[in-house]
Structures are given as C-alpha cells and as structure tokens.
Specification:
Strand content: 5-15%
Order of helices and strands: HHEHEHEHEHEEHH
CATH class: Alpha Beta
Radius of gyration: 17 Å
Number of helices: 8
Shape: globular
Helix content: 25-40%
CATH topology: Rossmann fold
Number of strands: 6
Strand order of the largest sheet: 3-2-1-4-5-6
Length: 217
C-alpha cells in the first residue's frame, strides 16, 4: 500500500541520487530475484549501540525472531514469496536462512565501513523498499528511509527498550505492529522526552504515534 501524498519521498528523491553503476546493480538483483515474485523487504538491525560487540548484543534472539514472524504475517496468504534481508550482522543471515529457507535472498557482500561496504549498503537500502511489504526494526534510520522513499506503511518490530526508559526492567516483550503512516518519524521528539523538564503526558502522546521508536542512528 503506497501513500498518494507524502513529504519525505519527493525530498529524498531530490537529495539522494545513486550513481548509475549502483542503479544497475539494483536492477540486476531485481531481475534475478524479484521478477514474478511476491517480495517482502526484511530489515533486522542488531548493532544497537556504539561500542557494543559484533555478536548482536544490541538485541535479543526473541526480538530477532519477531522480525521473521512479522514478515510471514505481512505475506500471509501469498504464494511464490521472496524475503529480501538487509542486516548489519553477518550471523543473522544464517539465522534467517534457517528460519525462512530458500525463500530468503540477500546481498553477499561484507558488512563493513569500506567503500565497497558502503556501496552495498546503498543497494541494500534501495532493494529493501522494492517489495509489496516491508518489515523494519524500530528506531533505525535505515529502515525509515527504505519505506519513506517508497511511500510504504511499514510493519515494525519496536525497540525492546524505549529511549525514555531509565529503569533496568524497562524491556518490553517483542511485538509486530503496522505503522499508520509511510512518513519516517521525527528523531528529536524522544530526545526532548528524555529531558527532566518533560512530564508523562507528552510522552504518552508520542507513544500513541510510535514516536518512541525514533533514534538518532
């Protein structure tokens, strides 16, 4: 389902213009893996905080599993399905293969900050929004851009711990929910909420619109 009116998509189209060699890579992948298929883009972000180790310490296994459940729910009743995975965590590719089988496709490049790795990330980002549905990790700008660019209302697996929660027991049970808009959320709201001068009423209002899943990543 694509929104007819949107703000983010036309602005991004003006600012972000991949080079022709990258666009050719995107088109080749689409032709090889997406043609004639029902496609769902699936983003699983694992490296949640700077300084965390590279074993996906930013999320739990249950949180990751919810992404796969959400993707299957998004495509319920469809046949000839392809799941396109974009992740910042190499072992998650293997986990997804075990869960989704031969219906899973992804780029085979390395996940790093080299020039090649960054180019792969742009290809990932564009392909993520090329399906009929998209599932993203709450709070990830990568996910926001993928669905905002294509005017798609995403399925979202929210952060397990809202930014405004300071207690050690603030972790929430993983869940899957459908967003009410294709527009990426405004990152600075949770920054404001976290300040001492704000009280609960405003936070509850932001929670109602899913704004607590924004993060400046």
């Amino acid at each position: 389902e694509r929104a007819r009116k949107a703000i983010f998509a036309p602005l991004l189209a003006y600012i972000a213009r991949p080079r022709q060699r990258i666009l050719r890579r995107i088109e080749r992948f689409r032709e090889e893996h997406f043609k004639g298929k029902h496609v769902v883009g699936l983003q699983v972000r694992r490296q949640m905080r700077k300084g965390r180790d590279k074993e996906g310490a930013g999320t739990t296994d249950e949180h990751v599993e919810m992404h796969f459940k959400c993707a299957r729910e998004a495509m319920r009743g469809a046949e000839n399905i392809v799941y396109f995975l974009a992740t910042d965590h190499e072992p998650t590719r293997r986990t997804a293969r075990n869960k989704l089988g031969d219906n899973l496709v992804h780029l085979n490049g390395t996940i790093d900050s080299t020039r090649g790795g960054m180019e792969d990330a742009v290809v990932d980002l564009w392909l993520l929004g090329e399906g009929e549905q998209v599932v993203v990790t709450g709070g990830s700008t990568f996910g926001f851009v993928s669905h905002g660019r294509r005017r798609m209302k995403p399925w979202l697996v929210p952060l397990e711990k809202p930014l405004s929660s300071s207690s050690s027991d603030g972790w929430e049970k993983p869940r899957c929910e459908r967003e009410i808009t294709c527009e990426p959320c405004f990152h600075m709201w949770p920054m404001m909420i976290a300040q001492r001068c704000f009280s609960g009423g405003f936070e509850e209002a932001m929670k109602e619109f899913g704004q607590l899943n924004c993060r400046p990543w």
